[in-house]
Amino acid sequence: SREASARKGGTGGPAFVAGDPGRSLALQRVLADEMPPKHPLPADEKDILRQWVESGTAWGTSPIDPYRYSTRRRAGYDWWSLQPIATVPVPSPPVVRESSGHPIDRFIRARLAEAGLAASPPATAREQVRRLYIDLTGLPPTPEEVDAFVADASPHAYERQVDRLLSSPRYGERMAWEWMEAARYADSNGYQGDGERTMWPWRDWVVDAFNRNLPFDQFTVWQIAGDRLPGATDEQRLATGFLRNHAINGEGGRIAEENRIDYLFDQTETVATVWLGATFNCTRCHDHKFDPYTQKDYFGLMAFFNQTSVDGSGGNPRTPPVLPVLDREMQAR
Q: What is the model's pLDDT at position 264?
């Protein structure tokens, strides 16, 4: 673990020794006038680190405000995004001076009250329905749809409108936008001639998965390893198109094995970025400096994708293995 490595240290000694700043090599480097040469830590931050060592270096704790330093990992502060989710008490209505229909609103109003600010006035019915349509379908409502919502005096009008939009096929299309972006979706090679490739069946599967509300665990497993499931269906194999979205380099001078490894890097880093939400790329060359990932972790994950039959040769965007897929019209027939 990172903690064990820091306490054991290397040839120069341990990075941190509980209660002993003089023997804590990392602290000595930080306190030295020449380290770091361009951007030394402010004196107050050096003092915080010294206090942490003197107090016993309790791992996972720090006097440093995690919100202020959420983008820079500091000694003794475990990365906030990897901590277990904890239950936070919801502010009671008296704290926010008024009751609210949703617990999230209570947190917002409590923070506004703390800052001496007032909430914005509620959105009008026309504003609400426009926001709903754009959020859930990516399209604005028609004038007739706006008028119908405004005229609905039922206390459940908003909830019913949400249900209608969630049932629309446009909902899956809207939700697929960000997913296709993260999955580097394209219907072409991405290099040189940029030859056409047929990836739209995977895109349609993503849209359909959102519209069917496919459970996220299945949505995850199918895209990463659907072909490895016992008795894998065509749909589950199609989902693994996620891994085949990488660019294909058809340059004549490229070495096939170099291409193949580049594709593996792409698959490894895309899966880690999408599902871990972290810059896993750094660990290709060394243990991560800010997140708890090692170079061994990187190549351990890459080993799963190193079973691919794609050998990196050629520039055909339809590089086997390919899956024959019927479009909806053919399926209907």
A: 96
Q: Is the pTM of this model over 0.90?
A: no
3-state DSSP assignment of residue 13: strand
Q: Helix, strand or coil for residue 10?
A: strand
Q: Ramachandran region of residue 321, left (φ > 0), alpha (ψ -120 to 50) or beta?
A: beta
Residues of the chain with pLDDT under 70: 1-2, 33-38, 60-81, 93-100, 317
> What is residue 80's predicted lDDT score, i.e. its pLDDT?
65
Could you tell me how many helices (H) and strands (E) the chain has, helices first? 15, 0
Residue-by-residue DSSP string for 132-197: HHHHHHSSPPPHHHHHHHHH---TTHHHHHHHHHHTSHHHHHHHHHHHHHHTT--SB-SSTT--B-
Q: How far apart are the first and last CA of the chain?
A: 57
What is the predicted pLDDT for the residue at 93? 63
264 contacts 305 by C-beta, under 8 angstroms: yes
Distances, alpha carbon 136 to alpha carbons 105, 123, 125, 210, in Å: 20, 17, 16, 12
Which pLDDT value is given to residue 204? 94
pLDDT (0 to 100) of residue 317: 67
Spatial separation of the C-alpha atoms in residues 49 and 40, rounded to whole Å:
13
Least Cα distance to 315 among 190, 185, 183 occurs for 190
